[in-house]
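Subject: sequence -> structure tokens, single chain

Hey, anyone have a minute? Need the predicted structure for the following. Not urgent.
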Amino acid sequence: MGPVLYIVIPCYNEEAVLPLTAPLFRQKLGELIGAGKISDDSRVLFVNDGSRDSTWEIIQNLAKQDVHFAGISQSRNRGHQNAVLAGLMECRNRCDITISIDCDGQDDINAMDRMVDAYAEGYDVVYGVRSSRETDSFFKRFTAQSYYKFLAAMGAEVVYNHADYRLVSSKVLEAFADYHEVNLYLRGLIPLVGFKSTKVEYSRAERMAGESHYPLKKMLGLAVDGITSLSVKPLHLITSIGIFVAFVSFICCIWALIRALTGATVPGWASMTCIVCFVSGVQLVSLGIIGIYIGKIYLETKGRPRYIISERTENMI
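Reply:
Had a minute. Here:
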């Protein structure tokens, strides 16, 4: 008998796309079961992230119609990363492997075959990596690639062009349960756990229906979380900039003193204004970055739960 697989799918206001993609996930699960690669006890687990539409009702109906569908619902919207975490933690004692994937149908579900094969070869983590970004706009492609390069430069251990499409074994999830960060950035935290890993490339398609729930504002927020959760280099960078500005200011002071002693001073409103604005700008940016880290410390010390499950379908109880 093959390993028990749970496909973890976060859902937020997905009533338009869920009826289209749910049969595809079920079909892929059936194919893997039929090929003997996974156990018949495997499930498609939907995680309702506090949706305001009929997403949860759709999930409940799917679970009633087919035992291979299951669902859990969070008490409120907590965000994509917390929804994925909730699904992984809920099923880690029920399965041997999990595959997390978005609900919109953009990620190639056929890559799951190669992920399961890689697990059979001894890999505990298999990252789904986009082979290209041809479907993205120039702006999104440029910013995404620049972001991954910037994360690497900041010392964060991330997998290039990998989002949250990955296979993780229950052994890794047990170890990951000891990570208690409130500020979640799973694509950066999973590599920190370690274990034997590999990559599977796939092509990303257009969204099947509905609208994306990750606008530019949320993408920027996720980027900031990724950098500040995985690296303290920005703080070191602030220190370096501060030393440089202090050195330049010291040279300027000496120059100004010499000019004053030689009687060559000329009222320079523009130059003084530029210097004040520059130094003030550096100070405000530095305080902002420090403030982000202090805010994260504040949230971590509270120790609030990262997710709260309010409902479960019958086959998850």
